[in-house]
Amino acid sequence: MSTAIAVTGAELVLPPTDAGTPNAAVLADPAARSLDDSVTELRRLVDRFGHVLVVCPSAAPPAVAHRLHTVRGLLESDRIALVRTDLPPLGAAVLVRQLRQLSACDFSPGVLASAARLLAHYIYAGAVLGSVSRLDRVPVTLGSHLKSWLPGAHFAVLAGPTPRIVRVGADESGFTGPEFTTRLIVARGQLASDWPTTHLAPRWSVAGPAEETALPAGSPGWWGTPKLVEFAAYLPDLPVLHQLVASVRRETCHWCGMELIGDRCGFCAAPLTTGIPAQAGPTR
Asked: Between β-strands 183-188 and 228-234, what pairing exists: parallel, antiparallel or unpaired?
C-alpha cells in the first residue's frame, strides 16, 4: 500500500510537476465538519492508502491541530503522521508538493514523514513586502521598522533557512541564496514588484522561468501585510529529491518501530537515541 499526503487547506496544493505526481487529499475545515465526519474522513484515507501524512502548518488555527490530534487519538491509529512546518504558506505548499513527488517512490511511510524536516531546510522561502511593521514571524530590527515609514520603501525578507531582511534597492549583498540549482515560484499580492524575477532569480542562478501561482489565502496574515509578492526557491527534480532523502542513514524508532531519518520520528515524534545521522546535501 502507498502513503497518502493530506493537507489542512486547498492553498497547500500546487499543480503537479508531472503526470506522476500524486494529488493531495484536502481535509475539511473542522469549523464546517463534525468530529464524527472528520474521523470518517481520515479513516477512509487510512483504509485506502495504508498510511497518511497530514501536513499542518504551525500558523494554522489552533482548532485545526486540536482536531487532528483528537481524530488520531479516537482512531487509535499509528498509521497517521501529523507533519508540522514553520514555513510560510507558499513554502509550505512547495514542501507538500515535494512530499507528493516522493510518495510515489519506494520510501517507507516513516522515512517520508521524517523527510519533511530535511526538505524544509532546502526551501528558500521569502517575500517582498511593502512594510515590515507588522511582521512578527521573522526578527525585524528597529532600523527596518523605522525604514518602513519611508514612502515607497520595499523589503526583501527571507523566512528560512536563515532569516534575513534587506531594503530593496539598498545594500542587497547580504540576501544570499542557495548554493545549489533551484527553480523559483512566485505568488503576487497587492504589491507591484518584479524584484523576485528580475533581480533575485539572476543573482541566485535560478534555472528556467519562474512559476506563477495564486497567492495563498494565509499569506497576508503570515507576512503581516497584503502588500507583498511571495516567493520560494526549491529543488524541483524528483531524482535530486530522491537522492537527498536516500543518502541519509535510516534508523528505527525505538518507540513505534517506524523507519526514520534525522533525529526525530515523523509518526510518534520520539527523538533518536543512537545519535544524529549526518545529512547529505543535494548535487548540482
From this structure: antiparallel
